[in-house]
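Q: Here's a chain of 661 amino acids. Please give me its 3D structure as tokens.
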Amino acid sequence: MDAKIWIVIWSVVLIGMIPGAMVYTHYLAYSNENNIQTLADKLLANSSLNRQTIYVIVNESPTPQLSKAVLEVEGNLSQYGLVSSPYSQYVSFLTQVTGNSTLARNYVLSHGLQGSPPFVRELVSSDNSSFLITLTLNYSNNFVYKNGSTPSEILTPIVQSEIRPLGPEAYVTGTGAIDYETQELTQKYAFVFPSLFLVLAIAIGVALRSIRAGLLGFVFVGLTLYMSYFSVYLTGLILGGVDYVVNYTLTAVILGITTDYFIFLIYRYKRDKKSINGSRKAILISGLTVGFSLATFSLVKGFLSWGIVLLLSVILSALLMITLLPAVISIFGGKLVKTSEYGTKESIFSKASRVSLVYLVLILLVAVPAIYFFFHVPTTYNFNTGLPSSLNSVKGLTILERDYGFPIIVLVNKTQASASLASFLQKYGNVVGPYVSTSNVSQFTVNNGYVYYLIYVKGSPYSTETLNVVKTLENHHLIVGGLTSDILALQRENVTVYSLLELLVVSAVGLVLGLSFRTWKYPLISLSGVLISVTEATAILYLIARFLLHIELIYLVPVIIFVILTSLGSDYSVFIISSVEEEREKDGDYVSRGMGRTGSIVTTLGIILAISLGTLAFIPIAFLQELGISFVVSIVIDTFVIRTFYYPLMIRILYNIRNKT
């Protein structure tokens, strides 16, 4: 088809996408598709325990001098929800005893918590060094506004302003407060994302030795991202919403494949005398491989929208690159880059393809323990890990975990509630509930026939110790709820979900590559190479995270890296395999010639992708830092070890080709 016709067609298509791309954010759903609702969650659905709560930690002793300020702050906050502190609880208690609220308030203003009963001191630390003010909102824990924010997150700056009379040692914390300050922190580093595009443009220009090529690459990256937003809109229309977390994966994938396809096409145009038909075929195979491998997300519970968005985005991007880009090249190619013939000098990649089998043995010796570690790597479900300790919400959270802990909720039938059960639960922490400080069962009743106990275990709800407490309680056939219980349920679910996802991605990549090249050997080489680079990168990332950054490895990072690099790794596989297959028709050592033709471009692509995605490591959010570092490490291993040495050695072994020096 004539180049100008392709330009016209794509102009019409891209203009038609504008309305959808402009409103794609309206279809982002901020409630996780994979939420797991336990029996405890169902029983607590209409309970006050299932309400968003903002915590104010005052890192001072609850002295009489603070009484007035605290009660005034509570009065100001009461318009937003149910407020409680040891001072207001004591006022309520004295009011019930004396029948005079004024007298009760005046006593607390003068004497503080002097003479208060034990239940009032539940909001005071055991060493009397801090106390709590809680603001419970009339919104369930799962309630989220359409823009993705929660009521507790929106109210955080208001609460921060209201508590100023309490002094600098008062901190607002809780899920909403941490989300609010994390978002504020991310916005400070918003320049990183635009800089990523700038880095790509510069890198493309340097790689192709053309400023114009760099600018054109910037344009095509923008176009493919624009189409990916339209894909989100289209998926949202079909499903009603798209999980917002897919944005991270979507951005990485689209940046990766667009850069790869752009440089590969321009490079082949530059080196192969304007003949890019073979390159278009390679890109089509690659696009199908990446697209259908990522589409397997949809076959896993909770990831339906991920698969559809990624499939649409990748296929649209591949179509754009094999039609519009060649059309632009055919018209402006001479002004973009100068064509050049191959030199007679043998490249270092040709020489590297003939190294001894000792290199392969060394690669496999390192890979075996890395693969084992990948499937046993310790991870955390705590996305707050690594947040700057300077954040007020983090300071408050540290004190909250140290002095109080987060509650584990135990639900039992009314007939099971007893002093002996309360005594058993007290082995694991400070307990609030029937037969502890009161025998009044009714005040702890939820959902008709059930009552609850709260066990406050000091420390993080994500810690191994807290998880083991929940497991022990479950082994005693108790219904357990709370954050730690939900984490444990999610861990159990993910063992199956992520294993299935990894299997489906590997199967899809292997199937498409196998059908495209009509052999099982190339898929085996490609997938085993990716497995080695991903597992070794995970091991290195774990060491960096624990011993240099002093944070834990977040559980989603190895999974995302595996899926993305298994998919994107097929790009390089297709480029190398296509080149080797083209040289196979000629006499001589076609493996060396094929590697020589693609070695420099694959290395260039790897360096560009590593630098670009590595910019995420500069954002002081542990999840993004770990993603950025893992991208850099895995891509460097993949580029300089797997593609340079492992690939040609495996091709020679499987095809029984002798080294020819």
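Q: Can you summarize the key feature?
A: The chain is about 60% helix and 5% strand.
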